[in-house]
Design brief:
Chain A: Pfam families: COX1 (PF00115). The structure holds two protein chains of two kinds. Helix content of chain A is about 70%, strand content about 0%. Chain A is an all-alpha fold. The chains are: A mainly alpha, B alpha+beta. Chains A and B meet through helix 3, helix 6, helix 10, helix 11 and helix 12 of A and helix 1, strand 7 and strand 9 of B. The structure holds protoporphyrin IX containing FE and copper (II) ion (CU) (2 copies). Protoporphyrin IX containing FE (HEM) binds near residues 292, 353 and 369 of chain A.
C-alpha cells in the first residue's frame, strides 16, 4: 500500500478517510507535531535552569505553566497518539483483517485529539500534570485549569474508544486460521495496554469530574475546607497513572519485539515469555500505585504493601530485557538505525528500572521523592525507553509509509547525539536529586554542585535539540527526495517485511 | 513456540525475584527502625502555607523561616498546612513529610552536629514554591 507521499492525494481525502492507514498517518503527524512543541518547552526549561536567577523566562508563573504543558503534551499528545499510529498501521495487518473493527469510531477517536490539544495549549495551566488538590481547586487560576481538565477528559474518552477498537480488532477480527498465541507480540502489546486503559481511565475520568465540580464550588470531594480529602484524589490519580506508565511502555516494548529479531536475523528467543510478561505486567501494574505517596503520611503497613506490589512488577520487566538479549545473542546483527534505537532503549530501560527499585524501597524514597532524581528516573523511561523505541520504529516504518528510504547516516547521527544527550541530561538529574534539588523550581540557590549539574543537563538537552532538528530535516527531505525503497525488504535483512501490499488503501 | 529449553530464563527470573525479596526485606527493616519515635522527643508544630514555614515549640516560642534546635535532642515534628499541599524537607537529615490541609503528619529527627541546614518545600504549591525555603539552626544544648 505504499503510501500517500508517492501518489499525492488532496489532504482532505486523508483527513476524512476512515481507513486504518490514513488514520494512522493522522495520528503519526499529530504526535510528531506535539513532540516538537513539547520539546521546545523542554529546551526553554533547561535554558532557564542553566544558571541560577531568571534568564529567559520572565517569572515563575510562566515557568510553572511551561513545565505543566510540557509534561501533559509529551505524555498525552506525543507518546499515546504515537502508539495509536503504530497500532493503526500494523494491528489490522498483523491479525490479517481489512481495517480496524470500527473504522468510524477510530477516526472519531483521533479527531478528539486536536481540540483537546488546543484546550491544553491555549489554557496553559500551571498546576503540574497531577493537578493536585487543593491547589488545583482553590489556587490554580481559571480558565486555564478548567481548560486543562476538559482537554484531559476528551483525551481520556479518546483513549477508551481507541482501546475498545484495538481489543475488538485483535480478539474478534483476527483471521480464523490464526490462534491468539500466534498473534505477533506487537499486537499483543496493544491488547495488554488497551485492557489496562479500559480498567484505569474511568477512575481518572471520575476524579476529573469531581475536581471540576469542586472547582465550581458545588462539591467538596477533595477540598478540606469543605470536609473533603486531597489524598483521595492522589489515590484515584495514581490508580490510573501508575498503570498508565505501563500503557506507555508496553507498546514501545512491542515495537522493539518487531525490530530486534528482524535485525538480529534470528527468531525471538521466547515468544511465550514475551506474552506472559505483557500480561503479568498489566496485572501487577495495578498493585503499586501508592508508591507515589509514601510521604503523604501513610501507615507503615500501607507503605509495606505498596512496596511489595511495586517490586512485584520488576521480574516481568526483567523478562523482556532477558528476551531481547537472548534474541540478540549469537545473532547476525545488522546495526541499522532502527536497531540502534532499540538497543539503546533497552540499555536505558535497564538503568531506569534499577532507579525504580531504589525509589520503591521506602526509606530511600524519602531522599529521592519530588527531587530531580524522580525527574531523571521517569525521563529515562519516557525518553530513554519509550521515545527511543518509538523513534526507532518510526525509522523502521518509514519506507513502509513513504515508499522511500531515509538517510541512514543522518539517522545514525540522530541516534548517537540523542543517546549522549539523554545520558547527560537524565543521569545528571539523578545526581542533582541526591544533592536535594526539588523538582518544579523556577530558580535555585547558587550551590556549586547544583549549578554544575544543571549546566551539564542543559548542554545535554541542547544536544538532543540539535539531533531532533537533524531528524526533522531527514524525515521531510527524504519523504520527497529519498531513494525509493525496496518495499519487499527495505533493510536487506532477509525474511518478509510487512505484507505491505495487503493493506490496500481504498483510495489508491 | 521456541524449540529450545528455557531453563536459563527460569534461573534468571529466580535471581531477580530473590534480589527483590532482599531489597524489600532490607527496606522494611530500615523503615521500621526509622519510624520508631523516641519517647522523650520534643514536639514542634510545623505549619506550611503559601509560601513560608512557621514553627511553634513546646514552650510556646514561635519562629518563622528559621528553626532553632539543640544538638543531641530528638524532635517530633507535627506537620500542618494552612492552604494547599506542601512538603517539609530537611535534605541533610533525610526529613521529608507532606503538609496536607486537614491532616497532621509526623516525622522525627535528632540533629547530631552544630550547624545550619536548608529547609525547603518539595511539593509543588504554586507561584513561589521554588523559593519556599528556610533554615534549620542546630545549636549547642543550652544548659
Ligand atoms: C514503565 C515505565 C515507567 C514509567 C513511564 C515511570 C514513570 C514514572 C513517573 C512519571 C514518575 C513520577 C512520579 C512523581 O512525579 O512523583 C515515577 C515515579 C516513580 N517510579 Fe516510575 N515509571 C516506570 C517504571 C517504574 C518501575 C519499574 C518502578 C519500580 C520498580 C518505578 C518506581 C517508581 C517510584 C517508586 C516512583 C516514585 C518516586 C517518588 O516520587 O518518590 N517506576 N515513575
Ligand atoms: Cu510549599
Ligand atoms: Cu512547594
Amino acid at each position: 500500500m505504499v503510501l500517500e507521499l508517492q501518489k499525492p492525494r488532496p489532504i482532505w481525502q486523508i483527513m476524512f478517510s476512515t481507513h486504518h492507514t490514513d488514520v494512522g498517518l493522522l495520528y503519526l503527524i499529530t504526535s510528531l507535531g506535539f513532540l516538537f512543541m513539547g520539546g521546545a518547552l523542554a529546551l526553554a526549561i533547561r535554558a532557564e535552569l542553566f544558571l541560577p536567577g531568571s534568564q529567559i523566562i520572565a517569572d515563575s508563573m510562566t515557568f510553572n505553566r511551561i513545565f505543566t504543558v510540557h509534561g501533559t503534551t509529551l505524555i498525552f499528545l506525543f507518546i499515546i497518539p504515537f502508539a495509536s499510529a503504530v497500532g493503526n498501521y500494523f494491528v489490522p495487518i498483523m491479525v490479517r483483517y481489512k481495517d480496524m473493527a470500527y473504522p468510524k469510531l477510530n477516526a472519531i477517536a483521533f479527531w478528539m485529539i486536536p481540540p483537546a490539544g488546543a484546550l491544553i495549549w491555549l489554557g496553559f495551566a500551571d498546576f503540574t500534570w497531577y493537578a493536585t488538590p487543593p491547589y488545583s481547586i482553590i489556587s490554580a487560576p481559571g480558565p486555564a485549569a478548567d481548560m486543562w481538565i476538559f482537554g484531559l477528559k476528551i483525551l481520556g474518552v479518546s483513549s477508551v474508544l481507541g482501546a475498545i477498537n484495538f481489543v475488538v480488532t485483535i480478539l474478534k477480527c483476527k483471521h480464523p486460521d490464526m490462534s491468539i498465541g500466534q498473534v505477533p507480540l506487537l499486537a499483543w502489546s496493544f491488547l495488554s495496554s488497551s485492557l489496562i486503559i479500559l480498567v484505569a481511565i474511568p477512575t481518572f475520568a471520575a476524579a476529573l469530574l469531581m475536581l471540576l465540580t469542586d472547582r465550581l464550588g458545588v462539591t467538596g470531594f477533595f477540598n478540606p475546607a469543605m470536609g473533603g480529602d486531597p489524598i483521595a484524589y492522589a489515590h484515584l490519580f495514581w490508580f490510573t497513572f501508575h498503570p498508565e506508565v505501563y500503557v506507555l511502555v508496553i507498546p514501545a516494548i512491542g515495537m522493539m519485539y518487531e525490530i530486534i529479531p528482524r535485525f538480529s536475523r534470528k527468531p525471538i528467543y521466547s515468544f511465550n515469555s514475551g506474552i506472559f510478561a505483557f500480561v503479568l505486567l498489566s496485572i501487577v501494574g495495578f498493585s503499586s500505585w501508592a508508591h507515589h505517596m509514601y510521604a503523604t503520611g501513610m501507615s507503615f503497613t500501607e507503605k509495606t504493601v505498596f512496596m511489595v506490589g511495586t517490586l512485584a512488577a520488576v521480574p516481568a520487566s526483567a523478562m523482556h530485557v532477558y528476551n531481547f538479549i537472548a534474541t540478540m545473542w549469537n545473532g547476525r546483527i545488522k546495526f541499522l538505525t532502527p536497531m540502534m534505537w532499540s538497543v539503546g532503549g533497552i540499555a536505558l530501560f535497564f538503568s531506569a528500572g534499577a532507579g525504580g527499585v531504589a525509589n520503591a524501597a521506602m526509606p530511600l524514597d524519602f531522599t529521592t521523592h519530588d527531587t530531580y532524581w524522580v525527574v531523571g528516573h521517569f525521563h529515562l523511561f519516557v525518553m530513554g525507553t519509550i521515545a527511543f523505541g518509538s523513534i526507532g520504529f518510526l525509522y523502521y516504518m518509514y519506507p513502509y509509509v513513504t515508499g522511500r528510504m531515509y538517510n541512514e547516516t543522518m539517522g545514525k547521527i540522530h541516534f548517537i547525539m540523542s543517546f549522549i544527550g539523554t545520558v547527560l541530561v537524565f543521569f545528571t538529574q539523578h545526581v542533582l536529586g541526591l544533592y536535594g534539588m526539588p523538582r518544579r523550581i523556577f530558580d535555585y540557590p547558587p550551590i556549586p554542585e547544583w549549578i554544575a549539574m544543571n549546566q551539564i543537563a542543559s548542554v545535554g538537552a541542547m544536544i538532543i535539540g540539535v539531533s531532533m532538528a537533524i531528524f526533522l530535516a531527514n524525515m521531510i527531505y527524504s519523504a520527497g527526495k529519498g531513494k525509493p525503497a525496496n518495499t519487499e525488504d527495505p533493510f536487506g535483512v532477509g525474511g518478509k517485511y510487512y505484507y505491505p501490499f495487503e493493506a490496500k488503501n481504498p483510495s489508491h | 513456540m521456541s524449540g529450545h529449553s528455557n531453563w536459563p530464563e527460569w534461573i534468571y527470573v529466580g535471581v531477580v525475584v530473590a534480589l527483590m525479596c532482599w531489597v524489600g526485606a532490607e527496606a522494611w527493616e530500615a523503615e521500621r527502625l526509622v519510624e520508631h519515635v523516641p519517647a522523650d522527643a520534643e514536639v514542634i508544630k510545623v505549619t506550611g502555607q503559601q509560601w513560608f514555614w512557621s514553627f511553634e515549640h513546646e514552650d510556646g516560642t514561635k519562629e518563622i523561616g528559621e528553626l532553632h534546635v539543640e544538638k543531641g535532642k530528638a524532635y517530633k515534628l507535627e506537620i500542618h498546612s494552612k492552604d494547599v499541599n506542601h512538603s517539609f524537607n530537611i535534605h541533610d537529615y533525610v526529613v521529608l513529610m507532606d503538609a496536607i490541609p486537614g491532616r497532621v503528619n509526623t516525622v522525627w529527627f535528632a540533629p547530631t552536629d552544630v550547624g545550619e541546614h536548608d529547609i525547603q518545600c518539595r511539593e509543588y504549591c504554586g507561584l513561589i514554591h521554588y523559593n519556599m525555603r528556610g533554615t534549620l539552626i542546630v545549636e549547642e544544648p543550652h544548659s
